[in-house]
Amino acid sequence: xxxxxxxxxxxxxxxxxxxxxxxxxxxxxxxxxxxxxxxxxxxxxxxxxxxxxxxxxxxxxxxxxxxxxxxxxxxxxxxxxxxxxxxxxxxxxxxxxxxxxxxxxxxxxxxxxxxxxxxxxxxxxxxxxxxxxxxxxxxxxxxxxxxxxxxxxxxxxxxxxxxxxxxxxxxxxxxxxxxxxxxxxxxxxxxxxxxxxxxxxxxxxxxxxxxxxxxxxxxxxxxxxx
Amino acid sequence: xxxxxxxxxxxxxxxxxxxxxxxxxxxxxxxxxxxxxxxxxxxxxxxxxxxxxxxxxxxxxxxxxxxxxxxxxxxxxxxxxxxxxxxxxxxxxxxxxxxxxxxxxxxxxxxxxxxxxxxxxxxxxxxxxxxxxxxxxxxxxxxxxxxxxxxxxxxxxxxxxxxxxxxxxxxxxxxxxxxxxxxxxxxxxxxxxxxxxxxxxxxxxxxxxxxxxxxxxxxxxxxxxxxxxxxxxxxxxxxx
Lengths: 226, 240
Fold this sequence. Notes:
The complex is a heterodimer.
Chain A: H1 2-20, H2 30-48, E1 50-55, E2 60-65, E3 67-69, E4 74-79, E5 82-87, E6 94-96, E7 99-104, E8 111-112, H3 115-128, E9 133-134, E10 137-138, E11 141-145, H4 169-223
Parallel strand pairs in A: 1-7
Antiparallel strand pairs in A: 1-2, 3-4, 4-5, 6-7, 7-8, 9-10
Chain B: H1 3-29, H2 34-56, H3 63-81, E1 83-88, E2 94-98, E3 110-112, E4 115-121, H4 125-128, H5 137-143, E5 149-152, E6 155-158, E7 176-180, H6 183-190, H7 192-208, H8 217-239
Parallel strand pairs in B: 1-4
Antiparallel strand pairs in B: 1-2, 3-4, 5-6
């Protein structure tokens, strides 16, 4: 028993070393820490297989394990136990550490990449300033400063998706359809009941007819004048 | 990066070195017993446990286990990262980098798993040309033919009405890329939601549809007539 607890102590020490090591990257220069931290990202992505980075709240993100659902041709994640769907309508799903990876906003049922919100913001700026239209035509190109990085915010995508599908649509539609179809199911029961009653009516009519025929035959026979 | 976290890291490093030295390095300097070999194996297996779980089981782990574990690893790695950006490379792949310069807009800085965090992309020519449209390079090649280009005030831009309505790099002399508003934006705007709604409706009807494949009103009437006359016939046979 003491041998097992001794070995368990060492095993846990090994686990602790594995968990502490990436934190050390904070005091190392990036050139040294880079490979170490990327290795941890790689292990995490291997665990997930597919993942979506979802904006949650105004300025924070959550990483969610994703599954491709062929039924809806969409990526499925679970939020508070409920399924949410994001369709890769524009083929923007890419990779992170060789695993499928995309960006999503919880209000829009589409997979995004880092470029789309940038264009959406520019689009909204031009639209609001009245510069989008060039005569009758949309000015259909934007200048991107080459080599200059700008941060993006996924919520900017709302500017170009005014009539979106929502990630909870399939779930909501499923619940509503189940409710709506419940009437049809009770109709089926009613129909089966009607058929049984029809059968009873048919056989009852014949029974009644046979009773009348029997009593009718007796009375006719007894009352005929000779 | 707060100095408090740096102190914590240094303390953790010192603790790891002390413990490692006492339990691992010191015994190695002396004759090794079987117990010590076992201890070494236990230590190594502890270090390798999570990577092994990841590589052996990987995505087959249920999400209630893999998601928290992956987020824990990201949290620890991001503590080492301090301030990072998720960069979409010109090849479309993502990578996380530590940044020291302050990118703009400042209000777009966020937090993710313990790190100050932002998302950006590499605005290079390689990022925009040649684009793959739905993984069909032939469409791109066709669209990139010289006749699809036109001069526009000294700047060459792609005629988006021909060849493919997607974005392409165009050449100018001011260090900027001109990128047309493309098909992908249009697809995002028009297609995603309603299409998924229609698919969801069809799937839900498949799952919950009541009598759609059974009786219609006419079929019900015919069935009732058949049953009615059938039972009358049976009654005739039985009672007469």
